[in-house]
Amino acid sequence: MIGVPADVSTDEAKLIVRRLQLGAYYSIVNAFRASGYLTNTKLKILRELSLYFQLSTERHQAEIRRAVNDEELSALADLITKDDSSYEWLCEGRHAVPASQDDTLFRLPRNVKLRNEPLVKMEKQKEKKICSVK
Asked: Between the CA of residue 60 and those of 28, 40, 51, 77, what are the distances in Å?
């Protein structure tokens, strides 16, 4: 990094520090994603850093989604783990959707029938259990 000029104001210095914090978080998310599964240890470190760097939950989740969708990081992770390691990352980066009281998010129009209705119900239950809000 280039030295800081003498005429930098306090506000500019704070912006530089903030940019460094965001860059550090970005790099750590990249390194963790490329190394494979999102373990409890990695998640704890990321959450602690997001608190320390004062990142919102939305920003944290956006960084996770960015890393999950990065083809190079995903390819590295898959090579290292010899498996698809994205599931835990996807759960952590999911958008929080407010629950509907009448469950209209899962209701289909009356004229639409599903061929494998029990399978759809099972998949919804599985998703709720595995990616439940912590």
From this structure: 12, 16, 10, 20
Give the count of beta carbons closer than 10 Å to the beta carbon of residue 60: 20
Per-residue three-class SS string for the chain: CCCCCCCCCHHHHHHHHHHHHHHHHHHHHHHHHHCCCCCHHHHHHHHHHHHHCCCCHHHHHHHHHHHHHCHHHHHHHHHHHCCCCCHHHHHHHCCCCCCCCCCHHHCCCCCCCCCCHHHHHHHHHHHHHHCCCC
What's the confidence (pLDDT) of residue 128?
Answer: 53
pTM (global) more than 0.85:
no
pLDDT (0 to 100) of residue 127: 53
User: Tokens representing 23?
Assistant: 């860059």
